[in-house]
TrEMBL record:
InterPro entries hit by this protein: AB_hydrolase_fold, Fungal_lipase-type
SUPFAM superfamilies attached to this UniProt entry: alpha/beta-Hydrolases (SSF53474)
Higher taxonomy: Eukaryota, Metazoa, Cnidaria, Anthozoa, Hexacorallia
Signal peptide limits: none
Protein name: Fungal lipase-type domain-containing protein
Domain Fungal lipase-type, first and last residues per copy: 1-88
Length: 175
């Protein structure tokens, strides 16, 4: 796949590469975007990462390296989603333990659309912001299964058509 991506970037040097994933797919997207930046497959300014409900990937050192290589990195967390808090952190001062990277887009209430109110959390301490999802005491696997009112595990069945668009098209009928 490396050769194909290099060929596409060579043909379209200004194009952005968006890497995204949910849950374990988010962890894999994190590693893939870091790899793209580390190996200079594309200009770093063109690598964009969005993850949804991603568990912690790597330690503090990885988080620093990732943020250097992937300048546009977002971790979307839906309310009290359980998964972004694993593996658990014994202490935020332990740099060899699991640690988040990137900016957290925290939806403190269930996000029903991309326009729902959220906070961008850059971390105090770095990337593990104690005022965002890290502050949530109760955790729910239900919030992990739906992002923006879309059931993540079955979204592919709709050919990735958001529910609001499906409803709008259904109401238009056949003309």
């Amino acid at each position: 796949m490396e050769a194909e991506v290099k060929a596409l970037v060579s043909k379209n040097p200004s194009y952005q590469i968006w890497v995204t994933g949910h849950s374990l797919g988010g962890a894999m997207a994190s590693l893939a975007s870091t790899w793209l930046g580390y190996h200079n497959i594309a200009p770093r300014k063109n690598i964009i990462l969005y993850t949804f409900g991603m568990p912690r990937v790597g330690n503090y050192k990885y988080a620093l390296q990732h943020d250097e290589l992937v300048k546009d990195s977002w971790r979307v967390v839906n309310d009290d989603d359980l998964v972004p808090h694993f593996p658990s952190v014994a202490s935020l001062s332990v740099i060899n333990g699991p640690y988040h990277h990137g900016v957290e887009a925290f939806y403190s209430e269930e996000a029903i659309s991309v326009y729902s109110t959220h906070r961008e959390c850059c971390g105090k301490p770095f990337n593990e912001d104690a005022t965002c999802s890290f502050s949530e005491v109760t955790r729910s696997i239900d919030k992990h299964k739906n992002y923006f009112s879309i059931p993540v595990g079955t979204f592919w069945n709709t050919n990735c058509v958001p529910p609001s668009r499906m409803r709008r098209e259904e109401s238009m009928g056949d003309y």
